[in-house]
Amino acid sequence: MVGPTATKRTHTRVVVFTTDPIGPEMPGPAIRAWELARALGDHLDVVLASTVSVSGTHPNAELRLAAGHAIRQLLDGADVSFAPSALVYMAAELRETEKPVVVDIYDPYHLENLEMGGADRAEEDRAVTRQSGVVNAGLRRGDFFTCASERQRDFWLGSLAALGRVNPYNYAADPLFGRLVSVVPFGLPDEPPQRSGPGLRGVVPGIGPDDKVVLWGGGVYDWLDPISLLRAAGRLSRRVPELRVVFLGMRHPNPAAPQMRVAAQLQDLSGQLGLTGKHVFFNAGWAPYALRADFLLDADVAVSTHLDHIETRYSFRSRVLDYLWAGLPMVLTAGDVLADEVAEAGLGVAVPPGDDEALEEALEFVLVNPPPPELFEAVAPLHTWQRAAQPLAEFCRHPVRAPDLVVNRLSPEEAAGPYAGHQV
User: CATH for 212-382?
Assistant: First the structure.
């Protein structure tokens, strides 16, 4: 056991699971689990468990490694669990437990997989079909679901309806299905970022105190579009020689994460254009979560770019909340819910997908005309972790099984019967 000494239990006991490492370097899903455990821990007895590794301590939760028989033991000692759909698929203990299970579906990764490709179309199809099966295992089992936006909620209600979960049992006392699927987005801290040490300026060779730093503040994934940013920056650097673009996360901290094709393409093209080490910089590792403020506060502008595809419509770019937390002017590709909010609030500029010329123009404009700090101060309180976690905390205080999971029901296929050419 890693973490604070166990004390007498006085609250509902919640186990928050993640399939990513818990420690200094954490990707988005682990950060989400960490922060939700922190928010829940203000009122509930929380265990934060990783199936990969744990290190250090947590301010509001006991840390545990969820390997082997530990998942069963953790479930036996809990009143309710919170887990990503992938773990529900992998762990029979979660599918079979009679206790309430909250399934986190904030990341529609079967849509992300459409962009990852494969050796041929058949291989791509197998990968996406497998991921859809993983997602459906979680959708079939969950007593309560958490997603990232109202747009996502509509998507997931459609998915649940196709699996028969939108049914009279769940509808009877909950006609809007708010007790089945609720919006629990990513959040940001209550307090503004504080510098703990040097970040980029004067630390990374080639980035000085007076340079204009443009930050790509997360991983480089196949469903994103760093190539357009690179092309825009290459041209802009001729007019703004002090331009410095930093890609902050090139190596995913989970060793099981696949290598991204676009990451290699990005570095190859940067070298070919003569930008690497002069105008474009790559952090070969991953920024420690506790030190992220140092990097954010060293930037002038932050970016997130993607192409026009189905993943974009239902995405929730968590890195954008880090930008909001740090009061960073943004240039974002339009099309997802956070980009729309940023543009509407005047916190930056949204550009069309794949338009590197519009991106170049927007970067130059925002570097010269940053939005005033008071605009960020008005929006940031709307996105705190405490606010985001409220529906989850309410369910965990009074966990219940979904009504349709405690009765014997036919599957949609069984209820439809054999197809005989007749009208339904």
Answer: 3.40.50.2000
